[in-house]
Each structure stands twice: as structure tokens, then as C-alpha cells.
Design brief:
Layout (H helix, E strand, L loop, with lengths): L2 H35 L1 E8 L13 E5 L19 E4 L18 E6 L7 E3 L8 H27 L1
Antiparallel strand pairs: 1-2, 1-4, 2-3, 4-5
Helix pairs in contact: 1-2
Length: about 160
């Protein structure tokens, strides 16, 4: 491979791999923090509003937040009100929704009290994202390693 091509390919691969690894780490830490420090709740899996959304492997969840200890958004300075939220959980789910995530079923979730639409599945749904996390981490690591190898081969020659 010619030097300019190797430098360009190595730089692109290293940049892509590094960015992908940073994204994977940030997403994993966010989900871990929500599971440990988020507000636990029970959510109801609801039917998707549009037919095209039914193909999304992450179910649409409906849940009510607890009254917030943060000031209300209207500036009244008091406690915030309980909010009804419709959101999809963070993290990957399998290509097809598991049987436990059909509309009408109840699931355990944890949400961020400051941003209630930021939610993760807890309990049985926790392990569903592990294969996807491993895949993206391996892809990022191999891209970074490949890019660094190409750049190193240019420096050696």
C-alpha cells in the first residue's frame, strides 16, 4: 500500500475506532449509573403509535415519575409534579422483542430524575444489551488496532 493511502486509511480507522470506543464507554457508564442511582419504577409496554415503529426492537414504555425534588419548571420554586413519560429504553435489545416485552406487560425500569425520558430496563432486560455492547467494543478495538498498525507500518518504512 502506498504511503499516502496507508496514512489516510490508518487515520480514518484509528479515528473511527477511537470514537466508537469512547461512545461505547459513555453509553455503558450511563446505563450502569442509571441502574445504580436512577429512580426505580414499573413501566407498561405500550403498542407503538405508527406501524413502522413496531420494527424497533426497543419497546415503547409508559410510566409515571415520582414527584421531583427539583424545582418545578414553571419557576414556582416548589416541588415538581409527577410526569407521565413515553420513552424507549437505552441500550440494545435483540433483533426481535423478547416475549416479556409485548404490549400490555409490566417491566422494571430505572430513570434519571432530572431527565425522565432517559430510562433503562432493569432485572430481566439487563443482559439483553450485553451481546450488542461486546460487538461494538470489539469493532471499535479492532478498527483502532488496524488503524494504528497501518500508521506504524508507514513509520517503519
Amino acid at each position: 500500500m502506498e504511503t499516502p493511502t496507508a496514512v489516510l486509511a490508518g487515520s480514518v480507522l484509528a479515528l473511527f475506532g477511537g470514537a466508537l470506543l469512547l461512545w461505547c464507554a459513555a453509553e455503558f457508564l450511563l446505563r450502569h449509573q442509571l441502574r445504580r442511582h436512577g429512580i426505580p419504577a414499573t413501566a407498561l409496554v405500550v403498542a407503538d403509535e405508527q406501524p413502522g415503529q413496531a420494527l424497533d426492537p426497543a419497546p415503547l414504555l409508559a410510566y409515571a415519575t415520582l414527584p421531583s425534588v427539583f424545582p418545578a419548571s414553571d419557576g414556582s420554586g416548589g416541588r415538581g409534579e409527577s410526569v407521565d413519560v413515553l420513552a424507549r429504553p437505552r441500550g440494545g435489545t435483540p433483533l426481535r422483542r423478547p416475549a416479556g416485552l409485548v404490549p400490555g406487560s409490566a417491566v422494571r425500569v430505572s430513570y434519571d430524575p432530572r431527565r425522565p425520558a432517559r430510562v433503562v430496563l432493569t432485572g430481566a432486560g439487563t443482559m439483553a444489551s450485553l451481546p450488542v455492547d461486546v460487538f461494538w467494543t470489539i469493532l471499535g478495538t479492532s478498527s483502532l488496532a488496524g488503524g494504528l498498525s497501518l500508521l506504524a507500518s508507514v513509520l517503519v518504512h
